[in-house]
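In the previous chapter we treated chains in isolation. Here, by contrast, the input contains two separate entities that must be folded as one system, with a combined length of 664 residues.
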Amino acid sequence: MSDSRPSSTAGPDKGRFVIAFALAILSLVVGWDAWRLSGINTYSAVGPGAFPAIISAGLALLALANAVEAVREGAQERPRDEIGPMAWVLGGLIGQIVLLAFGAGFALATGWLFAATAKGFGRGPVWKHFLAGAVLCFVIYAVFAKGLQLALPAGPLERLI
Amino acid sequence: MDTFAALGQGIMVALQPMNLLFAFVGVMLGTAVGVLPGIGPALTVALLLPITFQLDPAGSLIMFAGIYYGGMYGGSTASILLNTPGESASIVTALEGNKMARAGRGGPALATAAIGSFVAGTIATIGLALIAPTVVDIAISFGPEDYFALMVLAFTTVSAAFGSSVTRGLTSLFIGLSLGLIGIDLQSGQARLSFGVPDLLDGVEVTTLAVALFAIGETLSVVAAGARADEIIEPVKGSVFMNREDWKRSWKPWLRGTFLGFPIGAMPAGGAEIPTFLSYALEKRLCKKPGEFGNGAIEGVAGPEAANNAAAAGVLVPLLTLGLPTSATAAIMLAGFQQYGMNPGPLLFATNPDLVWGLIASLFIANGMLLVLNLPLVGLWVRLLAIPRPWLYGGILVFATLGTLGANPSLVELGMLLLFGLLGYVLRRYDYPIAPVVVGLILGPLAEQQLRRALAISVGDPVVLFQSPVALTLYALSALALFGPLLFYVFTGRKAPVGSDED
């Protein structure tokens, strides 16, 4: 969903270099796993390591191709991304996992996610959205866990019903 | 006549009161979620998949069909009124449709999109019912090496058709293929790339990946854009009904769009955007008032929207008959089948004819329901568009995590959702397409299975892969898909038109 076509300037595209590098690492990891699997005797014509080996080779080629394109297309002018709002959304997602890990239950944890996301999009205050979100998620929990038998994590609030 | 008997049987299944209810719920949910800005049919289906877990297979697949078609309708409403196509196949609709809405002709634009979708969907579904048995007959004679070649073709076309360059498409595809390796290898019982994490032994869930890439990745992109991405909703002024001239100008583009969309969608080349672009170009050339194009020509909405829907039905041909998903939405639908232990393909027509034909029949019903529901309810859908973005995206994330937790209540799963969400953000930021990742994840293991089956029969001799004429033809087509854009560039000196973005 990029809204503007990036224009090129001098120098290689650093972002795509990083992607090429990440692909190379992924290729090594997959290749290493394929090598590990090839050592295991499985009594079949093609073992579990064959397909990963092909993919590892493909990833290595793509790492190269991405690096070449990064140089050929040059650095791209991309609109600046705002870190603050992103941090709120990521904080919401991470906070939800942490809260669930401590047994806070679906409603409280997901209420926090809702509040943090809303804050990231510029709407506060956080505590009001947290309350509203928790109530909303409690209702969702009631509908889905009781009505549709989905196994959602329960906390002190959820055990009340 | 067999087809009609089977279809008749299917209609009986689809007309059972419970199944009608499922179709209705699916259509309403699909439209409601699809109309939300930035949410295309792929995400709609992925978000709503967990809700169908507890239903019986027939009911849930029928609901699915409703969600699929509903999501398509909803998506076109969002593109016309908001100029935010939720999927690339709606880009062209947004082009003219939003101009019409700005000129105060939003009503007729929505109407021609809705009726065009109905016409295209109905004709294309008839096409699906007629073609499917023939494809099944051919497919039944395919050996594993032919299937493997078919999947290679799907891989290459999916990567070449999406994204701004073939390298980018293939990169996305291989990320998906790598993710598909994770988990226990079913033939040897060996764990691959699971690093001792028990949650990884079952592999990566398609729904988790799709929801993460589409919902979390999209949310991160939008929030990072900040005030850059402000949207204006065009109010629907005047009548939603089309006048005589609108009808006269619409019906031919509907039909032309359908006949462009269905065959292209039905080929394993996949993708709904190519026919929409072709249809737009065609209507522009045939239009008696070419000056109107770019300023809100109704043909530019009617044709592409029909092409889009016909292609969406066409995509079901390879999905149902060959088990071959050629779009992100189809990949998620395949996951929906798999959750009931069913694999779409020629065998499904033999083992579960009621279910397959019930599904096809319910496509007709869903289509009819949409036509009846959508225009009168347009006011309701417009109100959904007006949800403030902080609440909208807060809600999207709530439902994304709800779906993931509902499918697998584990924190590792939520962690993967977060990681893949970041992946989705990076892919978007650097213009890598999303759909090949999802297709690679689901099709990779299937391709490996066929490859190993073929090689097991030949006792490891790879020559078997290149012996059957069917396989050779398919490889030739794959090569054409990969190098076609390059040849196009060499011969004409212009870049080949390619679609972009997800779905």
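Chain B has one domain: 2-492. Chain B touches chain A through 68 residues (CB under 8 Å). Compare these points with the single-chain example from earlier in the chapter.
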